[in-house]
Amino acid sequence: MACNCCGKRLNIGMIQKIDPNTGQKFKSCPHCSDANGGEHVYHPYPHSFGKTPARKTKAIVLIVGD
Q1: CA geometry: angle at 15 spanning 22 and 1, to 5°?
Q2: H-run or E-run covering 10
Q3: Could you report how far apart the first and last alpha carbons of the chain are, in Å?
Q4: What is the pLDDT of residue 22?
Q5: pLDDT tens across 18-56, in order?
Q6: Is the CA virtual torsion 10, 27, 60, 66 positive or negative?
Q7: Cα-atom radius of gyration of the chain, to the nearest Å?
Q8: Which of 1, 42, 60, 62 could disulfide-link to 26, CB 3.0 to 4.6 Å?
Q9: What is the DSSP string of 29-52?
Q10: Average pLDDT over residues 1-5
């Protein structure tokens, strides 16, 4: 299933956003986004996510603005 906003798959967790005012990073959660069924669900990154050396893919980074 695709996101209603960006059209990318909901079951991937590689989409990141950065708040330009605070510098806080956010990452989409594949489980939460897929469960939502319409749009990506973002959580603070990295503290809301685990780390593993198995992850080798690069993230897609979006700058969030007005």
Answers
A1: 135
A2: none
A3: 27
A4: 92
A5: 999 999 988 888 888 888 888 888 888 877 776 666 555
A6: positive
A7: 12
A8: 42
A9: -HHHHHHHSSS--EEEETTTS---
A10: 85
Global pTM value: 0.62
Residues 6 or more apart in contact with residue 66 via CB below 8 angstroms: none
Integer Cα distance of 9 and 18 in angstroms: 20
34 CB-near residues (< 8 Å, 6+ apart): 1, 10, 11
Cβ 45 vs Cβ 61: under 8 Å = no
Taking residue 11's Cβ as centre, other Cβ atoms within 10 Å add up to 12
The Cα–Cα gap between 46 and 51 comes to 8
The amino acid present at 41, given as its one-letter code, is V
* Residue carrying structure tokens 């991937």: 12
